[in-house]
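Homework-ish question, so no full write-ups if that breaks the rules, but can someone show me the predicted structure for this set?
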Amino acid sequence: MTAHDPHIGAMTAAIDMPLLSVGGLTKTYGSGRGCANVSFDLWPGEVLGIVGESGSGKSTLLGCLAGHIRPDAGRVVYDLDGHARDTVSMAEPDRRRLSRTEWTFVHQNPRDGLRMGVSAGGNVGERLMAVGARNYGAIRETATDWLERVEIAADRIDDRPRAFSGGMQQRLQIARNLVTGPRLVFMDEPTGGLDVSVQARLLDLLRGLVRDMGLSVIIVTHDLAVVRLLADRLMVMKDGRVIEEGLTDQVLDDPQAAYTQLLVSSVLQV
Amino acid sequence: MTEHAYNFAYLDEATKQMIRRAILKGLAIPGYQVPFASREMPMPYGWGTGGVQVTAACLTPSDTLKVIDQGADDATNAVSIRKFFERTARVATTTATAEASVIQTRHRIPEERLSEGQILVYQVPIPEPLRFLEPRESETRRMHALEEYGLMHVKLYEDIARHGEIATSYAYPVKVEERYVMDPSPIPKFDNPKLSGMAAIQLFGAGREQRIYALPPYTEVVSLDFEDHPFEPMKADHDCDLCGAGESYLDELITDDAGGRMFVCSDTDFCAARRAGGHRGRLVPEGDAA
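A: Not a homework solution, just the prediction itself:
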């Protein structure tokens, strides 16, 4: 890797640069540890899985990456149109603009990511309106199109998410997040709380969207099946540290660290 | 205790100074909600405690005060506030819009064009236009600071999706000088165009919410809308039954229990002046002097 300094500015050889480059990211809570000294690169079009048990620092790490939590130390350098920008030190307006346009965040609980009092169409349209769309007809057309892409019937467009099943709510959240064509998607346990058949459909949908839109994804989960299906690369976390990383199949089929071995062997074989 | 025991216009000078500072700051940043230390007033919240404090801070002994409630000079709220300042400030009061130097209003802008030198004070119940969309104050402040107003259009979108048109008919959100989104207080959207380019100073006081905001004279104020659903001011499709005015905002009154109704100007001063000038509406018999 070359310079991470945001002041260096234009780095025109975009292909030589990862989309997201994380170095030394640390966040502690009082005496307890959130995540410590995490470093990795994410390349365009890549899906990175982060697994680990509850309390291992996965969600803290994701929050720091997405700009929801301010890390104590470290940098998160994002490739914004060929300019390397450190999103930790960048001004808040810029960071929030980034999170409305280039990034998006899919929450585990759709209630956190949706506006429950606003219709499905309004939910999908919000990001469009946030970046300046002011034509009702066009917003509605795009929203209808996206509802169909996530397999929600177009005639449900004026229903509120409250009237939707859990799986539909999660698909609606995905539509709402992807409508502005982001490049980087953060997902926090997107299949948590869904039953297995609904999970399978959602994963199938996600896989299609990631492929079609060329998305880069960082997905946090405790479910190894999810990363097996979706992720190109895998990071295993324990006690706030990355203890193993590599290609997904390599890590899952030939785990090196003792904890990873335990994790892989804990999965029930049906 | 007599009214002489009170300072001029009820509030003590230090409080008025503090309110004036907030007003000046509001005028310097049109549409921005300035926090101020709202005082307890001898009236309940919701009765115009914010407006009364702003008026008290603006009044001088030589001012002439007019108070209206939904356009009317003779409604309870208007009468009680007018009496309050008659007693505590001993200023002259009037019902004639043109003669007033300070006008405190609840939910209307007078029909008559205001001029330079006049001050229009609005009573505001909820100053935050984003409140019902985003309950967190910390978040709405950040949204104002960063100009993130997409959510405001979500509300208008929901209106059109549900009602086929923008059904918001009062407290219709506006954008001030292409910067702050502002709640114009619950005036009918019929009055929204009058906000823009007004010669008078417009001050907004929210007592319970402890906010003051302002529009200096000739400020550009644009009502939010969509390209394909433009903003439209709205009024009852009638003429005034008393003065015959076709361009004023009307109240609908039920006159009997057999479906009888009449439409009258909500601005009582405007209506009375027209009748005095010889204009006659549908329900005023020929030859009947107003």
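Now go work out the reasoning yourself. Hint: The two ends of chain A are 43 Å apart (CA to CA).
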